Sequence to fold (153 residues):
Amino acid sequence: MFIFVLIGALGLKMDVTVSILMKQKVVLAYSGGLDTSVILKWLVNKGFDVVAFIADLGQNEDFKAAKQKALKVGASKVYIEDVKEEFVTDFIFPAIRANAVYEGRYLMGTSLARPLIAKKQIEIAAKEKAEFVSHGATGKGNDQVRFELTYLT
Fold:
């Protein structure tokens, strides 16, 4: 099950069932996986101009293939940004200093990455003059909260 949320420029959740007179732009946190590809297509079918954003956090991914997939599914543009240095210096190092592990044994890499991805989305949204940002986190986990709280700050 997907929970789809558009966050407007003022941080207000927007009702996407309203008919759209002009193509509004949304920046989607895109991974190339099933969830974000389905959301990308859904947004395109709803009449949005979708700009996909892929964060290179050091994961072993084929970014070129993900970019091609996003364009094939309907993204008008794809940003791939290398954010490894910022991720390590501003997120990983402080977490290590704080001994931030879940249940005393799980490192929190994914959860630490979400605020950085959301921050970069907002920067791209400003550059692209996009009205909305979106993510593919399901409503049953904490990633939704991590994305949306960052959007609001």
Remarks:
- Residues 15-20 have pLDDT under 50 and may be disordered.
